[in-house]
Amino acid sequence: MMMYFTYSLLFSIRNKKAALLSGFFINTNKLFLLLF
Known about the structure:
Elements: H1 2-35
């Protein structure tokens, strides 16, 4: 059970990082659209 908890915690952290990265890329794409 503890193993599952730590795994889910790591997975959620990775998902948060992925969400932040995708949001960052979306924002940069919007900036590029505004610039060009």
